[in-house]
Design a protein that fits this description.
121 residues; mainly beta; four-stranded antiparallel sheet; 0% helix
């Protein structure tokens, strides 16, 4: 009953920029933390960035200073601005949200469908 839809992936050259967006919809009472993960071929999924309901952010060391995560609470949307992209950033990026559904007291994690980001050298 909760859906996440991602957009904004694509192909860019080294040094370029992309902006990812993820919108949550459905039977949502409240959204807690939101974040972005990525998974490159042959590698495990890793945390890229996360943002709490109060706006506190955390970044992976590999993207700190280049990526910025933000959220628009009225629209139930989380964004990831990616600047100075490198080939090592190439991966499928997944949105994750911690949601308390309508009629519940505890949160559940929901995932987006994934969007491809490719950075060419």
């Amino acid at each position: 009953q909760v859906q996440l839809v991602e957009s904004g992936g694509g192909l860019v050259h080294t040094g370029g920029s992309l902006r990812l967006s993820c919108a949550a919809s459905g039977s949502i009472r409240v959204i807690l933390d939101m974040g972005w993960y990525r998974q490159a071929p042959g590698k495990q999924r890793e945390l890229v960035a996360q943002i709490s309901s109060g706006g506190t952010t955390n970044y992976a060391d590999s993207v700190n200073g280049r990526f910025t995560i933000s959220r628009d609470n009225p629209k139930n949307t989380v964004n990831l601005q990616m600047n100075s992209l490198k080939p090592e950033d190439t991966a499928v990026y997944y949105c994750n949200t911690e949601v308390i559904p309508v009629g519940s007291w505890s949160w559940r994690a929901y995932w987006g469908q994934g969007t491809q980001v490719t950075v060419s050298s």
